Amino acid sequence: MSRYRVAVVGATGAVGTEMRRLLRDRGYPASEIVPFASQRSAGRELEDGLVVRGLADDDSIGGFDVAIFSAGGSISREWAPRFAARGAIVVDNSSAFRMDPEVPLVVSEVNPEALDHIGKGIVANPNCTTMAIMPPLHALHVEFGLRAMVATSFQAAGGAGQKGMDELMEQVPGLLADPLALQRRGAEAAATVTDTPVFGKPLAFNVVPLLGTDTGNGYTDEEMKLQNESRKILGIEDLAVSPTCVRVPVMVGHSIEVRAQFEREPTVARALEVMGAHEGVELDDVPTPLEWAGRDPVAVGRVRLDLGDPFALNLFVVGDNLLKGAALNTVQIAELLHERGLLGARAAA
Fold this sequence. Notes:
By secondary structure, this protein is α/β, with parallel strands linked by helices. 34% of the residues lie in helices and 21% in strands.
């Protein structure tokens, strides 16, 4: 069996830590796993015994077969092409290359054939919210022909990384100190939370219906990802999408309510059958992010016919944003690159 040198860029973050664990636990055929992070982390020994290298120069990044990135868009834009130029295939978890027509945007169970066209040596991971709904919607699209969807996401603090989870937890004790203020004097209670750099408003015991940066059309970049990435992954250029993204006080696990409209009239029984048979999907009558945290598949429940349109279904999807939404799909793509014989030759060239 071929064995590969693997770089993990952003190895010390929440997603990077999961990537390293998954490479070990899933038995990825690596001869060496090298963690990269910022220069200030260089030399740090991680809990798995690996020692962090700083991103320094091109001489330090040669000889890798695959490099998996979760270090943010600016790092990816600078370093992913440099790793690719030195022979690695890069699997990038940021938004930097997702809509580049020369970069495949891949959900491992949905469109693995896109890996046959890696023009720049880079593969993109979708946004974690888009990722969760793609396997069940792909199953429904094949069966009924997807035309449009209304998608409302309820996204965990962990979608903003460790800093998001830390901000949520830091807000809880102060608000718990005065339960009556939470019940009767909400503005007063909220005013006690003065440090909200991640979410802009208090998230503990609250819901924040603004997630991402405004794009000028009233929708945020996070919401536009749901439209644009879904179209690219499913190959439906004119898919109509009405997205709303909301941040909720959950540590890990994104939830999405989807109203999906089809070309052919669906039935609940057949929808459950095809989704339950699709790789990466499990059925659960009432899926919740707490119960599905730490689990690889996405869960689908509350499947019902729309009350006003016989060609539409409503469904509720839950997925761990740190696993399938990020780290797991990245490692699965690296596995597909191995299985499809796409690694090694590029590095040798």
